[in-house]
Amino acid sequence: MRLASVRMGQGIFYGWWVLAACMGMQILTTGLFMQAYGAYVTVMQGDFGWSKTQFSLGFSLQNILSGFFAPYLGWLIYRYGPRRMIRLGVLIFAISFMLFSMVNALWNFYLLLLLMSVGVSLSGFMAVNTVAVNWFEARRSVALSLIQTGMSIGGLFVPVVAYALSHQGWRFSALASGLVILILGQFCALIIRNQPEDMGLLPDGMLVERDSSQDSPKVELSLGQALRTKAFWFLSFGHGLALMIVFAVMVHLVIFLQEERGLSLQHAAGVASFLTAVTMMGQLLGGYLGDKVNKRLLVIVCMLAHTMALGLLALGQNMFSVYLFVILHGLAWGIRGPLMQSLRADYFGRRHFARIMGYSAFLVTMGVIVGPILAGVMADHFASYRLGFLVLAAIAIIGAVCFVFASRPKLSPA
Fold first, then answer.
1. Are 371 and 246 within 8 A, CB to CB?
2. Which residues, including other chains, have CB under 8 Å from residue 362's CB and lie 6 or more apart?
């Protein structure tokens, strides 16, 4: 099959505009809420006096809902297309964030976090990754790495959010964030298209110039076929353990740096921003390497790097160990992140990608839920994060073993 490049508008393949809009969605959901959550916790703790465990539970509750909702969300994306889900999700997320500015008790704090999680689930990770997988094949790892880079760029806004929290208060910051999400999120949704075929294109901006009936068919596994492979289960469990580490650090790093290293909120937020900058470099590197070398081997190395990084954070005695942790953890997180979805698409195809990812996300979310709670409970009980971080370091080794066994499935195409 001979392919020719198709260019849209001013010589730019429209898929890149779609990818830019998907990155924009990740910047909004990550920068204004997910990575900013630790900064909100620091300020709200002073107003309400809730414990670390209660705040960790709040973060995990919204991930519990996301996990249980994931298989259904995968079906919704498959049935109605990711663009519709993104538009609906932006509306729910924005309104919930604005209502969050009126929180006055633990129960409505939890309720609004759950509503926000619905909006983030509909408009965020699963939908935009499905779009990227549909639009790119040969450059899939690069495309997915750029989606992940959007998350890192969002993290660079954490000091801005921290400044607003310190000078304008968390209520004003939540209201303003909701308005920003509503306006910019709907703009991004207008640009996004579900798949290139809707515009007469093929992935990577290629147009078929002759009959391709004699070419080898691409592997497209159904949901049922995917569930019967060991690759699905080992990828899911390994991914869940990786996110257990990532989200525990995301929620607790700022608090740890303040309480156990004596840093100010602004300084701690600056370290968190440095982490996201390193992660972004790792994501770009991971996208480049992922289309050229063995993805699974890269992921295994990254999990072992997580182990080393957490050991440094737990046992280190100075800021040098903190910054070394940031470099190792950030690169490991960044390189590994985009390869998760790229491996799934390589193994199972793109036709049923959203449904397969939805069922996988149900398992992966368990790690997202447990990680912050585990770190918070252990910090409350032992008055230190040290043991919790060492436990997470051991968990990273188990995750590496999972990826060792997550080999490509040997199942006939659907």
1. yes
2. 67, 68, 70, 71
Note the pLDDT tens digit of each residue in 344-353: 999 999 889 9
Q: What is the 3-state secondary structure (H, E, C) of the chain?
A: CCEEECCECCCECHHHHHHHHHHHHHHHHHHHHHCCHHHHHHHHHHHHCCCHHHHHHHHHHHHHHHHHHHHHHHHHHHHHCHHHHHHHHHHHHHHHHHHHCCCCCHHHHHHHHHHHHHHHHHHCHHHHHHHHHHHCCCCHHHHHHHHHHHHHHHHCCHHHHHHHHHHHCHHHHHHHHHHHHHHHHHHHHHHCCCCHHHHCCEHHHEEECCCCCCCCCCCCCCHHHHHCCHHHHHHHHHHHHHHHHHHHHHHHHHHHHHHCCCCCHHHHHHHHHHHHHHHHHHHHHHHHHHCCCCHHHHHHHHHHHHHHHHHHHHHCCCHHHHHHHHHHHHHHHHHHHHHHHHHHHHHHCCCCHHHHHHHHHHHHHHHHHHHHHHHHHHHHHHCCCHHHHHHHHHHHHHHHHHHHCCCCCCCCCC
Which of 165 and 56 is assigned the larger pLDDT? 165
- The answer to whether the CB of 406 falls within 8 A of the CB of 231 is yes
pLDDT digits (tens, 9 = 90+) for 89-122: 999 999 999 999 999 999 999 999 889 989 998 9
d(CA 141, CA 60): 29
